[in-house]
Amino acid sequence: MYKLLWIMLMSVVWMVMHALQTDEEMAMHALYQGKHAVNRAAHAAAQQLDPAQLAEGHLYIEEEAAAEAAVHYLQQNMELDENGDPLPGSYFQEGVELLAVDVINDGVSFPYLYRNNLYDYEVTLDKPGVVVIIGLKYPRVFSVLPPIEWTIKGTAELVGG
Hints:
41% of the residues lie in helices and 24% in strands. By secondary structure, the protein is α+β, with helices and mostly antiparallel strands.
């Protein structure tokens, strides 16, 4: 009789451990999707050149257009509404917070060391570029566990010039 109870207890433990592992794998999938979306947003933002400056031979990224492109790409790639909340059917369950969109233009000397101490990010840019930082939260399956929170960072710089 005690062996039967032991087997039932171990089955419950095994199922809980399996559910925790599955939850962890789903969280990693959310992180990868978020990182890919941030990279795409940074690349899209870095493409927003000022045509007047370009006509004069200067690579200059329009800051407002870059921020709009980054937000648009995040919304499209992460299936978010205009407030950063997930749309129905989105993989994400919590809203995404856009923490920073920083444009580095030719007003600095390159190579330029970009530092953001608030989000513990440092990158060296050889040309004008854009840095995008978001906050992403993944709620756990088991409500007794706290949600996983990430600060996802991405950078893109211009290729030409």
